[in-house]
């Protein structure tokens, strides 16, 4: 189960210590239901390749992720036949053991945008959580569960539906 809240943001957050940085590429075989591939490369490390299935949802939804080898990833990328979405993700530690994931999507492209997410263990935790005062302005535009705010919707808008 994936339980997360999402915000549209501007730039990287200020005043937090970055704990990790990833370069990602992802594409969609279908968006209803979501079937996605993604490469995730932490700075200075080899890439991991993931095949992901997600149910419809808002605050929470079913998510199944399984690793695939690079050859399978490349075959699925060719099957999709469209340019993958490019993302840079930076992670920041939050109080209570939570992690803020800030993302820059398709840098330099016409559809470029930024978003941030925080994942939770339970829906109750997610609903009760308030951003620390230092992040209140940064996380002012919450879009959790809003139609058109998923990466699948962005894929359809910028790469065409499947």
Write up what this structure looks like.
With 162 residues, this protein is an alpha+beta fold. The protein has three helices and ten strands. The chain has one domain (2-159): Hypothetical Protein Pfu-838710-001 (Beta Barrel). 16% of the residues lie in helices and 43% in strands. The chain is globular, with a radius of gyration of 16 Å. The two termini are 25 Å apart.
What's the alpha carbon Rg, rounded to whole Å? Answer: 16 Å
Number of domains: 1
Q: Using the coordinates shown, work out and report the CATH topology.
A: Hypothetical Protein Pfu-838710-001
Task: Please tell me what the overall shape is.
Answer: globular
User: What portion of the residues fall into strands of 2 or more residues?
Assistant: 35-45%
Which sheet architecture does the biggest sheet show? 10 strands, antiparallel
Spatial gap, N to C terminus: 25 Å
Helix and strand arrangement:
Layout (H helix, E strand, L loop, with lengths): L1 E7 L9 E14 L2 E9 L5 E7 L5 E2 L1 E6 L1 H11 L4 E9 L5 E7 L7 E7 L3 H6 L12 E2 L8 H9 L3
Antiparallel strand pairs: 1-5, 1-9, 1-10, 2-3, 2-7, 3-4, 4-6, 7-8, 8-9
Would you summarize the structure shown here?
The chain is an alpha+beta fold. The chain has three helices and ten strands.
Which descriptors apply to this entry?
single chain, alpha+beta, Hypothetical Protein Pfu-838710-001, 10-stranded antiparallel sheet
């Amino acid at each position: 189960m994936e339980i997360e809240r999402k915000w549209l943001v501007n730039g990287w957050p200020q005043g937090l210590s970055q704990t990790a940085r990833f370069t990602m590429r992802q594409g969609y075989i279908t968006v209803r239901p979501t079937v996605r591939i993604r490469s995730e490369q932490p700075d200075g490390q080899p890439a991991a390749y993931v095949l992901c299935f997600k149910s419809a949802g808002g605050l929470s939804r079913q998510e199944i992720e399984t690793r695939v080898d690079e050859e399978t990833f490349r075959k699925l990328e060719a099957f999709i036949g469209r340019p993958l979405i490019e993302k840079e993700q930076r992670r920041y530690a939050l109080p209570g053991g939570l992690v803020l994931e800030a993302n820059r999507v398709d840098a330099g492209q016409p559809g470029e945008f930024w978003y941030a997410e925080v994942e939770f263990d339970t829906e109750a935790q997610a609903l009760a959580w308030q951003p620390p005062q230092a992040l209140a302005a940064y996380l002012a535009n919450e879009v959790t569960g809003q139609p058109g705010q998923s990466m699948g919707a962005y894929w359809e808008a910028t790469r065409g539906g499947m």
